[in-house]
Write a structure and sequence with these properties.
alpha/beta; Rossmann fold; 4-stranded antiparallel sheet; 3-stranded parallel sheet; 11 helices; about 35% helix; about 10% strand; globular; disordered C terminus; binds S-adenosylmethionine; S-adenosyl-L-methionine; RNA methyltransferase activity; methyltransferase
């Protein structure tokens, strides 16, 4: 049963001062003027926003109306805006929107992710686990959907979600394409909540067989690292942080060995740290002589989503994500 009222997120979390000091040092240099507002969001759990992703494998009767009556609106465009809309400042956005909406080679439209967000950090109640039943919706940080959208998954494609646990993005992947075998997908949705995963660094047994690979790499998750740790744990995590780029580089190389020509590898993290983001991608690109300094890839190494208080930035980013865009 749905609890019909939304509640503000409240929790007692203890801040790890050492981690904050390191972030201040590093991010004021890397992000400049953007850091104070990003810092304010990270330090105020009440301002953290969660999207509500509907599960299209269940009948979602009534939830859409409840969400809309509470002021939630869809994150992704349900229909493409006209070419001169203020939300899509360039033609790339319009093409991306059309691409998100439909698959030209298929007679029926491709399923789109249904995610609702609110202009204020209102938290929709999470749905309790009901044995034998799928959840009708999941709460997740809306920015987590960007790597999944970047995969541009089409029906029938093989996707490897290389660092899957606990499974938020894998769930989003299941919402993006029509599965060949619906019961397998339903089983997957269930399994993902049992936190099943395995650790290896070698994915070469998939050698050149996959079209899409997602590397949502283990990283110094800024938001959670700031909280819930003693000063001893903080020290330990900062040491661990220095070792992460080597692991991330290994995982990204392994993903590249599994993807077939013409496919795509999407690398994502939930840290703002440049040494775990563009530096990792650059290191791997440097392996390939054809990706020299004059390569066009150099100018489009990725999108950095910096937490801000205005939610509209997220919608605009979704429409612009195919072009070079650093917020
Ligand atoms: C950022 S989390 C992934 C979150 C997940 N994609 C999601 O959306 O729920 C990174 C995960 O990678 C796992 N991991 C660490 N080393 C790994 C490895 N060698 N192969 C696969 N996963 C690994 C970690 O245990 C962690 O669960």
């Amino acid at each position: 049963h749905l609890k019909l009222e939304c509640t503000y997120f409240s929790s007692k979390r203890s801040l790890c001062q050492q981690v904050l000091e390191r972030f201040d040092q590093q991010y004021s240099q890397e992000l400049g003027d953007l850091w104070p507002s990003a810092r304010a969001v990270l330090l105020d759990p009440h301002s953290w926003q969660y999207g509500v992703m509907l599960n299209r494998f269940t009948t979602v009767t009534g939830i859409t109306q409840i969400l809309q009556s509470q002021g939630f609106s869809t994150l992704l465009p349900q229909t493409c805006p006209p070419n001169d809309s203020h939300l899509q400042p360039d033609s790339t956005s319009h093409e991306l929107c059309q691409d998100l909406q439909s698959e030209p080679s298929l007679s029926s439209p491709r399923p789109t992710l249904q995610c609702y967000i609110h202009p204020y950090p209102l938290r929709f109640p999470s749905q309790a686990h009901r044995p034998g039943q799928l959840k009708q919706y999941y709460l997740l940080n809306a920015a987590s959907l960007l790597p999944v959208l970047a995969l541009q998954i089409r029906d029938g494609e093989k996707v490897l979600d290389l660092c899957s646990a606990p499974g938020g993005k894998a769930l989003a992947i299941t919402q993006c394409a029509t599965p060949g075998n619906a019961s397998v997908f339903k089983g997957l949705c269930k399994l993902l909540f049992d936190f099943i995963y395995y650790h290896t660094l070698d994915y070469s047994h998939f050698l050149l067989s996959l079209l899409q690979v997602l590397v949502d790499a283990p990283c110094s998750n800024d938001r959670s690292w700031l909280y819930s740790c003693s000063s001893q744990q903080g020290e330990q995590r900062l040491k661990e942080r220095a070792r992460l780029p080597a692991l991330q580089t290994q995982l990204l190389r392994s993903a590249l060995s599994a993807v077939r020509p013409g496919g795509a590898v999407v690398y994502s993290t939930c840290t703002l740290s440049s040494s775990e983001n563009c530096a990792v991608v650059e290191t791997v690109l440097n392996d390939c002589p054809e990706n020299g300094t004059s390569s066009p890839y150099r100018h489009r190494l990725g999108i950095l989503v910096v937490p801000q208080l205005q939610y509209t930035a997220m919608k605009i980013l979704i429409l612009k994500m195919n072009s070079q865009c650093i917020l």
